[in-house]
Amino acid sequence: MVVQCSRALEGGSVVVVDTQTHWYPDELWDAYTRDDSYPRCRRVGSEYEVEILPGRWWTVPRNFRDLSLQYADLKEQGVDSMVSSSASFGDVDYLSLEHAVEVARRLNELRAEAEREYPGFIGLATIPWQDPDAALEVLNEAILRVGLKGVLIHSNVAGAPLDSEYLRPVYERVAELGIPMFVHPARSLVEEQMADYGLEILVGYMYETSTAVLRLVLGGVMADFPDLRVVHPHAGACLPYLAGRIDGSYSKPYAVGEVWERPPSEYMKRTYTDTMCQDPATLAFAREFYPSDHLLFGSDYPYFLPSAAIEFVNGNVPGEELDGILQHNAERLLGLSIPPDG
């Protein structure tokens, strides 16, 4: 797949591929207004409000919904190509199966349309993970017919852990298709304890993805599907810092209870991560932990500014690694070809 981009990074030939951007089309919010259950949403005039915590409503900003605004904003801030998903608010796993399939298919079609309309746009598939047969059907459609380049999974499937046995056929198919699987935080399983001080976003999301990916490791998913490529964002969240503890304790009677041929950290290092961490020491730790070709650039737009994320990476990554992080690692992962001059 050749992705045409409109500009190159100032002063060089590298283009910036942002592997963590999020778009939530109006069709998604309209679908949520049909049910008075999680995720709760209501229409207020021309706007949408979503319940981010019990009893706490938030007006969805325009640049979360309007792709033309997003695209112009990303381009202005220095992003040439953007990998787009409907992340936390795009969790269709809580919907009824029929409704989830309908919404997932529509989101995938919209992303395919966006790929045709907006140069550099790359869409990730949404699938109804709560039912493996439906998930496989929608996955095959999204990749083989619609033409998307990866798939999103949340840190739990309507509360079910990612090492659940019924998910294995879907993981097997993702690996067969040769596409990456991007993990993103979802509704916290300990939401009530995280309600104060913004704890769910400050630390809860990092706990959720770390637990999810560690379950893929300890549950044998990573070992059983060696071709499964998993993207664990936010500099690997908690896992790089806990790798020593995990390796030192996983085989104890209170954990897995057996010694593996390879320690868990080797499977953790097989995952990919992005640079969205906002702290030089955290990024340095991730660069030391992960293979250099498994580091991707990510801004978490529209929650954060890509321009600040680009400046952060430029100031904290040595030149010999910069081209890979900003462009080439994502190209290889997603099977892209991005001409530097558009």
Could you explain the architecture of this structure?
This protein is an alpha/beta fold and 342 residues long. It has a single domain, classed as TIM Barrel, CATH 3.20.20. The chain has 13 helices and eleven strands. It has helices spanning 26-32, 62-65, 67-76, 97-117, 132-146, 168-177, 199-218, 221-224, 239-249, 264-268, 280-289, 306-316, 319-334, and strands at residues 17-22, 41-44, 47-53, 56-59, 81-85, 121-123, 151-154, 180-184, 229-231, 273-274, 295-296. Strands 1-5-6 form a three-stranded parallel beta sheet. It has a three-stranded antiparallel beta sheet with strand order 2-3-4, with helices on one face.
Offer a quick outline of the entry.
It is built from 13 helices and 11 strands. With 342 residues, it is of the alpha/beta class.
Elements, N to C (H/E): EHEEEHHEHEHEHEHHEHHEHEHH
Biggest sheet, open or closed, and with what strands and sense?
A: 3 strands, parallel
As a whole number of angstroms, the C-alpha radius of gyration is 19 Å
Number of domains: 1
The third-level CATH topology is TIM Barrel
Shape label? globular
| End-to-end gap | 14 Å
Q: Which ranges are low-confidence, i.e. pLDDT below 50, for 5 or more consecutive residues?
A: 4-9
CATH homologous superfamily? Metal-dependent hydrolases
Oligomeric description of these chains:
single chain
Structural class: alpha/beta
Strand order of the largest sheet: 1-5-6
| Average of the residue pLDDT scores | 93
Q: What is the strand tally?
A: 11
